[in-house]
Design goal:
Helices cover 59% and strands 6% of the residues. It contains 27 helices and eight strands. The strands form two sheets. A six-stranded parallel sheet has the order 1-3-4-5-2-6, sandwiched between helices. Strands 7-8 form a two-stranded antiparallel ribbon. Helix 3 packs across helix 4. It is elongated and about 100 Å long. The N terminus and C terminus are likely disordered. Pfam families: TPR_12. This is Tetratricopeptide repeat protein.
Amino acid sequence: MPVGWWASRDPQAPSAKVEKTADARSLPPRNRQFSGRQDTLLDIRRGWERGSIQVLSGPGGAGKSQLALEYAHLHADDYDVVWWIDAEHAVATASSLAELAIALGVADRKTEVPACVAALTRHLEHRDRWLIIFDDATPATLRSMLPDAGGHRLITSRTPGWDQWARVVGVPALPRRESVELLRRRNPTISEEDAAGLAEALGDLPLALSQAAGFMTRTGTSAPDYSRLLSGQTAVLLHEGLDASHPQSMTAVVSVGAQRLRRDEPAGLEAIRTCAFLASEPIPVGWLVTSAATEVALRRGLERAAEHSLATVDRDGVRMHAVTQHVLGELLSPKDRNRARSAAAALVSRQAPGDPLDAGVWAEWARLLPHLVAVDPAASDEPALRDLACNAVMYLAARGLVDQADVLATELRDAWLPPDGRETEHTLWVAHGLAMVRRVQRRFKEARTLDEAAFRGRCHLLGHNHRRTLASASNLAIDLYELGDHPAAYRLDRETYDRRRKWLGDDDRDTLASGNNLADDLRELGRREEAYELTRTTLARMKQVLGADDPSTLNCAGNLGSDLRALGRYQEALAVDEDTFARMTRVLGPDHYVTLTVADYLRQDLQALHRYRRARRLAQDIHARRLRQPGADRRDTEQR
């Protein structure tokens, strides 16, 4: 592609002036219902200082064309020439430019289109006060059709890849307050609360909001009724409610885009159908790659999907707006819908990030979780998807996202437990996870009941020495410890530690966790020197095997501070706890329940060393943060 015409004109360079022949205006009528986007309009206005080409980029239905039209009408007096071009096709674009050349008097109707465009290009190079809007363009559409210098070019596009030639202005969904304003401006009878609920249901997408407002106004449908009808009838509803300013419905945008994608890149359509049953958060492209042989075709297909308003594709992955997902899903035949839904579930099942207690993979868990929820593991009987869902509960609890963990675990257990109440491997796994949640919430009696059931069931199904059975035994010991039965906790921890050393090895993560918990028991039983030595050796091994910043290592380091404090070695305890607190704040965050527990250890050290002012400030900070937390558990909480 020639780069010259994309280059921004140097504002300092003198330009040769010629006598202008005429002014020209050609714009669609202004949308009197337009509202919001004031920040973006100002951004476009200021953007001309950095270049003469700006591209409004965003998903279908985001309102790019309406935004460009509003800008053109708002600032029309700043220009002598304002011309709107439907630029989806190169031939039509050239014809529209030829019409502009004729309107400006630099060509006549006998002149062939290429000659008209060439004459227009030469003419506009010597004029500054012009604005041409290219609606729905691609770089290929505009190739070699514009001058190197002159006025302003405002482009709307669904196609990525403009960055090297133009300033890109993102046009996402509306902020919620602007969505509410749009709905209430179109339909003043809607309350602010109902408008906010409807905006949430429609994902703040301007085209969908405009159609909803139009439909409700014409049919007398209330906002709550419209929201109810959206469930399962999104495609039908979003085919209605059009006005003159929106020539194509949201359903038509999706339907036409899917038809074109089927024609151009079938691999892209298959991928987009799968994405329709995932969450609207980014989907890494790598997840969709099934083989090296088909990767190029897939990536080409995703690019075409973006061009057809079905998705956006960037370095974070593929994004589909929730409304687009619902519409596309409803447009599929029952057979294709089931196939796409199964493909989405299988895709999620293949992405298991690994140990949910390993902070090194938490970013992967965070990326996966919304998509796991979207495929509804509670309704699935696929073992791999159920495994993933069980581990997701552990991840959420480990991250301190206790309310989310509680909701997911409860939903899974209620759905998976058979009518006869007979436990299965997965119901026991969820019981184990739910007990972890109850422990963090400091509901220790409930945790013990769940852990006892999980331990008994796993002994029966898996045997006494299975990794998951030993995990249930270890967590039951934690419950006993927190309920004050330290002798019973010690006996169970001692047996579990010995079994883990034998069957899993001394350096296994679970074995190291047992060593940490056993040291807790020893401290509470008054065997402080033994507790200190076991904690010290376990911590050294954890640092070597797991790393100094692993959450289990940091938890053990906090217990080392407790051992030192119990031995009256307050200065050493302070040094250990300060380091551990700093690391936990960095790794887990300042509000995580384990971070707050270690913060309290640090407060105790300061108190013992008579540093009362700092201890009091820290106590106040801990109290304020704990008001936002469901509880704090100082023991090592395991995963399996």
